[in-house]
C-alpha cells in the first residue's frame, strides 16, 4: 500500500476507531486494527503489527501527557520484567509462522481477539489485596508473548490490572505506561532486525496525526460516551472480527 489507495483509506479509518477505543477503555486499539486489516486482506500480519507498534506508542505517549503522575511504578516494573523477554519470543514465532503456517497465525489471532472481547465485557471484582510479584511478572509474560506476535498484548494485562484494589486512574495510567514500554521495545527490536521498510514507515506516518487527533478528542469528550455502551460496541466488533478470522 505505498499510495493512498482505497486500502490505505480503510486502514486509516481502522486506526481512528482503534485510537478512540484505546483511549476510552485502556486497550484494544491494536486488536481492532490487526483484526480489521487481516479480515479485509489489506496487509499481512507482520507488516500490520509493525505499524500498530508505532501508532500504539504515539497513542500511549499522548495519553500519558496528562496522566503520568498516577502511574504505579512498582507494578509497571514487575510486568515489564516478564513482558520484555517474551516480546522477543513472540517476534520470533511471528516470523516463523508467517513463512510456514500463515493460516494458523490467522486462527490464533482470531482466538486472541475473541478472548479480548470477553475480557472487555467482564466486570472483574477487585482482589482484597494486590497481587504478588510472581503473578504480576507472569501476566507481563503472557501479554509480552501476544504483543510480540501481534503488536497488541493488552488484554491479559488490562484484565489483571482491573482486578487490583487500586484507583481507576492509577490503573489506566499504568496500562498506558506498560503499552508504551512494550511498543517501544518491539519497535526497536524489529528495526534493529531490519524488518521496518518504507511502506511501514509511510503507513505509520499517515496514521500518527490521526492517532494524536482522535486521542486528544476522546480524552476531552470521553464523558459524553456511556462506558457500558462503548464496551458493548467494542465487544461486538471484536467478536465479529475474531470469529471471522477463526472461521475463514
Description of the molecule:
There is one protein chain. The model has no long low-confidence stretch (mean pLDDT 85). Helix content is 81%, strand content 0%. It has helices at residues 6-25, 29-40, 45-67, 73-100, 102-121, 133-150, 154-162, 168-192, 198-221, 227-247. It contains 10 helices and no strands. The protein has 248 residues and is an all-alpha fold.
Structural key phrases:
248 residues, globular
Give the helices and strands as they follow along the chain.
HHHHHHHHHH
Instruction: Please state the oligomeric state of the protein chains shown.
Output: single chain
Helix content: over 70%
Query: Count of helical segments?
Result: 10
Report Rg.
Answer: 17 Å
Q: What share of the residues does DSSP label as strand, in percent?
A: under 5%
Query: How many strands in all?
Result: 0
Structural class: mainly alpha
**Mean of all residue-level pLDDT scores:** 85
Sheet with most strands: none
Distance between the termini: 23 Å
Q: Which spans of ≥5 residues are poorly predicted at pLDDT below 50?
A: none
Question: Which outline best applies?
Answer: globular
